[in-house]
């Protein structure tokens, strides 16, 4: 069955099915783990980069970074979402946590697939559906171990440039990459459009058609993800977090952050620190 469900960041959830393309870029404050069980590949736009997950691959990423499934030939995939506080409580190596929070997903190539992955992901979905506390505790231990192994197998190099045959997607990848690289700066539509060699009016229409949101909403998502990261990983004052994230004023940062995360920046920092 085609799969796209609502995500509640405070919950440990897992499910399986045929992925469907996302209506717009998603953000939810947890660790998302994907496993491609059957079929072809899933192509995400993730934090400004195209990220392809191949058959047999396992991927993990911080889902507060804007991400959107834009192409798919997978017939069955598994997902597990681990609450952010649980993920931080694992005490993973600082370099690994820093990599994930900076928006770099962990993706193990199919050659590093574990023979036990299909059975494990199936078992985890069953354990979560069953609702038995002890099974959930065991599941979390096993998922943590899988993420630690994934960190050993995932290459450290950045994703290669997207060279797919879809020119529309190439244009959008160029604009999304520009937004991800320059979101801290004052930006204009003309500057974003120029990254894809498009007229601003055509760029806005093209962006909305493919990503299904506006350039400005996507830019806001990039800035909020950086705000979350800085609140968790630094002791910067809130005003400095706002400025470093690209917001023109503290009041705009507060309003956008509370609307997206449900609580003010200081409360978010206390919860996760």
Question: Can you tell me about this structure?
Answer:
- A hairpin with a 2-residue loop joins strand 3 and strand 4.
- This protein has two domains: 152 residues, Sandwich (Jelly Rolls); 106 residues, Arc Repressor Mutant, subunit A, CATH 1.10.10.
- The chain is globular, with a radius of gyration of 19 Å.
- Helix 8 packs across helix 11.
- The protein is built from eleven helices and seven strands.
- Strands 1, 2, 3, 4, 5, 6 and 7 form a seven-stranded mixed sheet that branches.
- Helix content is 47%, strand content 21%.
- The protein is α+β, with helices and mostly antiparallel strands.
CATH topology of the largest domain: Jelly Rolls
Distinct helical segment count: 11
Portion of residues within helices? 40-55%
Nearest-angstrom radius of gyration?
A: 19 Å
On the 0-100 scale, what is the average pLDDT? 87
Low-pLDDT segments? 1-8
Structural class: alpha+beta
- The fourth-level CATH homologous superfamily of the largest domain is Regulatory protein AraC
Major sheet: 7 strands, mixed
Architecture blueprint of SSEs:
Elements: E1 2-3, E2 13-19, E3 30-46, E4 49-53, E5 58-62, E6 67-83, H1 84-89, H2 94-101, E7 106-108, H3 117-130, H4 133-153, H5 167-182, H6 189-194, H7 200-211, H8 215-233, H9 238-244, H10 250-261, H11 265-272
Helix pairs in contact: 5-7, 8-9, 8-11, 9-10
């Amino acid at each position: 069955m085609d799969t796209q469900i609502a995500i509640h960041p405070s919950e440990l959830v897992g499910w399986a099915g045929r992925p469907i393309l996302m209506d717009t870029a998603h953000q939810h404050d947890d660790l998302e783990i994907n496993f491609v069980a059957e079929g072809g590949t899933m192509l995400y736009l993730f934090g400004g980069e195209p990220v392809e997950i191949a058959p047999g691959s396992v991927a993990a990423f911080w889902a507060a970074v804007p991400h959107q499934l834009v192409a798919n030939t997978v017939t069955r995939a598994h997902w597990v979402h681990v609450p952010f506080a649980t993920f931080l409580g694992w005490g993973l190596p600082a370099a690994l946590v820093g990599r994930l929070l900076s928006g770099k997903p962990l993706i193990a190539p199919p050659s590093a697939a574990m023979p036990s992955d299909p059975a494990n992901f199936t078992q985890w979905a069953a354990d979560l559906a069953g609702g038995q506390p002890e099974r959930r505790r065991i599941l979390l231990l096993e998922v943590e171990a899988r993420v630690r192994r994934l960190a050993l197998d995932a290459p450290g190099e950045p994703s290669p440039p997207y060279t797919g045959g879809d020119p529309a997607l190439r244009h959008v990848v160029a604009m999304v990459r520009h937004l991800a690289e320059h979101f801290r700066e004052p930006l204009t539509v003309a500057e974003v459009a120029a990254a894809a060699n498009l007229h601003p009016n055509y760029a806005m229409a093209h962006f909305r058609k493919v990503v299904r949101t506006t350039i400005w909403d996507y830019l806001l998502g990039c800035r909020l993800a950086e705000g979350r990261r800085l609140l968790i990983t630094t002791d910067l004052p809130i005003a400095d977090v706002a400025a470093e994230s690209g917001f023109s004023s503290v009041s705009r940062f507060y309003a956008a952050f509370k609307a997206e995360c449900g609580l003010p920046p200081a409360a978010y920092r206390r919860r996760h620190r």
